[in-house]
C-alpha cells in the first residue's frame, strides 16, 4: 500500500484548478476594484483637482507618474503568468510520470483493450475480465491501453484518466483510487461507431485482500495445463508402447525368417535324401 502523502491524479488536477481559480479571482477583484475607483474618482461633476495623472480628453494616457504604474502592472503580470506556466508544467509532468514517488514494485499493471464497443482487461497473473476493472485501494494502477478494431479513448472522469486506444499502438498512464467500496464509470471519449454511447464499464475499488482473492479466482485454470501435460505423458507412453510392439513385431518377423531358413534347409536335406535313394536304386540295377 502506498503512503497517503503520495499525490494522485485527482489531487494534482484539483490543485491546479484551485490555484487558477484563486489567482483568477484575486486578479479580477484587483482589476474591477481599480476600475471602479478610477471611475468614481474621475466621474463627471466631481471636484476638479490639479492631479497630473488626470486624463485629458483627446490625449493618450501616460500610465501615471511617467509610465511607472504601467510598467509595474505589466512587470507583475509577466512574473505571475510565467511562474504559473512553469508550476503547471511541472505538475503535468508528474501526472505523466510520477517517477520515484511511486515505486514500480508497489504498483500493479493492467492491459486494456477496447474492441467491439466493450473493454477487456487482463491482469499480471493472466486473470481476465470484461467491462469491469477491479483494483485495490491506495495502490497505483498502470494501464497499457490499445484498440482491437477502431480508434477508442479509455476514460475515467472521476479519476482524471484518459488514454487513447489505437490499434497497433500502446498508450500508458496511471491512476490511484483511495477508498474501497467506490465505483467509477469507464467511458469511451472517442466517437467510434454506432455503439459508442453504450461502450461503458466500471472500476470497482476493493481492499487488498479482496483483490488478491479476485486474482486467484479469475486466474487461468492450472488443472487444464496439468491435464495437457498428463495427456502428453500418456501419448509419450503410448508411443513407447508402439515402439516396443514394433520391436516385438520385428523380432517375430525375424523368427519367422529364421524358421523359413530352417525350412529351406529341410527341403535341401530332403532333396539330398532323394538323390541318395536314386543312387541306391541305380546300384541295385
Automatic annotation (TrEMBL):
Q: Which UniProt keywords apply?
A: Copper, Electron transport, Membrane, Metal-binding, Respiratory chain, Transmembrane, Transmembrane helix, Transport
SUPFAM superfamilies, per this entry? Cupredoxins
Q: Which family does it belong to?
A: Belongs to the cytochrome c oxidase subunit 2 family.
Q: Where is this region: Disordered?
A: 209-285
Please state where this protein is localized: Membrane
Question: Which NCBIfam families has this protein been placed in?
Answer: CoxB
Highest taxon listed in the record's lineage: Archaea
Please list every transmembrane segment annotated in the UniProt record, as residue ranges.
Answer: 16-37, 70-95
Q: Where is the Cytochrome oxidase subunit II copper A binding domain?
A: 105-217
* One example of a Gene Ontology biological process annotation: ATP synthesis coupled electron transport
Q: Tell me a GO cellular component.
A: membrane
Q: Which Gene3D superfamilies match?
A: Cupredoxins - blue copper proteins
Please name the InterPro entries in this protein's record.
CcO_II, CcO_II-like_C, Copper_CuA, Cupredoxin, Cyt_c_oxidase_su2
What is the protein's given name? Answer: Cytochrome c oxidase, subunit II
Q: How does it sit in the membrane?
A: Multi-pass membrane protein
Molecular functions per Gene Ontology: copper ion binding; cytochrome-c oxidase activity; oxidoreductase activity
Under Pfam families, the record lists: COX2
Task: Tell me which species this is from.
Answer: Natronococcus occultus SP4
